[in-house]
Design a protein that fits this description.
The protein is of the alpha+beta class. The chain has helices at 18-28, 91-100, 163-172, 225-237, 296-302, and strands at 8-15, 32-39, 42-51, 60-65, 78-86, 106-110, 113-119, 125-130, 152-159, 177-182, 185-189, 197-201, 215-222, 246-247, 251-257, 263-271. The protein has a single domain (8-302), classed as Roll (2,3-Dihydroxybiphenyl 1,2-Dioxygenase, domain 1). 16% of the residues lie in helices and 34% in strands. Residues 7-131, 152-269 form the VOC domain.
Length: 316
């Protein structure tokens, strides 16, 4: 197969309180809020993007913080655990930091790696692993130095209602390589140095329910707009029904739900987050696409004010 994704582009989840969301991912995890915009399909709700300094593909976790959202249930048809990667030797820093912020941490092992597992305030399941691959972050915030900071995604753990079909999609649609099995997980690898290791729980799982604390979709990388059109055709020829190409301002996107129930997106690497604001000031202002600008005052009035702020230990 000629098309092969290089890995995760972004992961998007549901939340409730937008300020608590910013406090956790910027104030505690030290990520940069690289874009503050709205959900184009529900413009009364923020769409917040967190990542490395530039918001590079493979580093971006995004949220729809909907104050009235129901509580979700993690299960089949979802990303079960989102994995962040940090430099070798940084895991003890993170174990200590999370505990000082009152976040319960457990340790897990698979594929000869140690993981720190925890959850955000909504219950979204997260983990941190250390690896040598990947460029160190250039963003330092709220007491997280660059030599300890999150580089991006280590990967993700997929929960499926039909793992065999999910694994088939990873291998034969997205072009990933299966590299092993361990403790009930199958591992697939891409060519990138972040967002490149995908673990699939091999046991069928009962379907989850969307809502706060769950992942809405996982997005895979397409290198450019021309390749993106090829991906749309490839997905269609593989027996799935991809959406039309959608302009998400910072990337183009298509969506399809694979047979294990997980909503997949394929997103272009370009144009990136600096297309509508200076790279040094990403995330500081509410950015709207041109078709929503006439409604700016109305939309801003419905959104809860948020600020990126450093947090004191013991607060989350």
């Amino acid at each position: 197969m000629s098309l092969q994704t290089t890995g995760i582009h972004h992961i998007t989840a549901f939340a409730r309180n937008p300020q608590e969301n910013v406090d956790f991912y910027a104030g505690i995890l030290g990520l940069r809020l690289v874009k503050k915009t709205i959900n184009f399909d529900a413009p009364e709700v923020y769409h917040l993007y967190f990542g490395n300094k530039a918001g590079s593909p493979g580093t971006i976790i995004t949220f729809f913080p909907w104050p009235t959202s129901r509580k979700g249930r993690v299960g089949g048809g979802q990303v079960g655990i989102t994995t962040f990667v940090v430099p070798v030797g940084a895991l003890s820093f993170w174990e200590d930091r999370l505990e000082r912020f009152g976040i319960s941490v457990t340790k897990a092992f698979r594929f000869s790696e140690q993981y720190l597992q925890f959850a955000d305030k909504e219950g979204l399941r997260l983990e941190i692993v250390e690896r040598a691959e990947g460029t160190n972050s250039e963003w330092s915030f709220s007491g997280v130095p660059t030599d300890k900071a999150i580089k991006g995604f280590g990967g993700a753990v997929l929960f499926s209602i039909d793992p065999a079909k999910t694994m088939d999609a990873l291998e034969h649609i997205l072009g990933m390589k299966k590299v092993g099995e361990d403790q009930g997980y199958a591992r697939f690898q891409t060519s990138a140095d972040v967002g490149n290791l995908i673990d699939v729980a091999v046991t069928n799982m009962e379907s989850g329910a969307g809502g706060a604390g769950t992942v809405h979709h996982i997005a895979w990388r397409a290198k450019d707009f021309d390749e993106h059109v090829q991906w749309q055709n490839h997905v269609l020829q593989s027996g799935y029904q991809p959406t039309e190409i959608k302009d998400r301002q910072y990337f183009n996107a298509i969506y399809f739900r694979e047979a294990g129930g997980i909503l997949f997106e394929i997103a272009t690497d370009p144009p990136g987050f600096a297309r509508d604001e200076d790279a040094e000031f990403l995330g500081e202002n509410l950015m709207l696409p041109s078709w929503f600008e006439p409604r700016r005052a109305q939309l801003e009035a419905k959104l809860h004010p948020i600020q990126v702020r450093e947090l004191e230990e013991g607060r989350q």
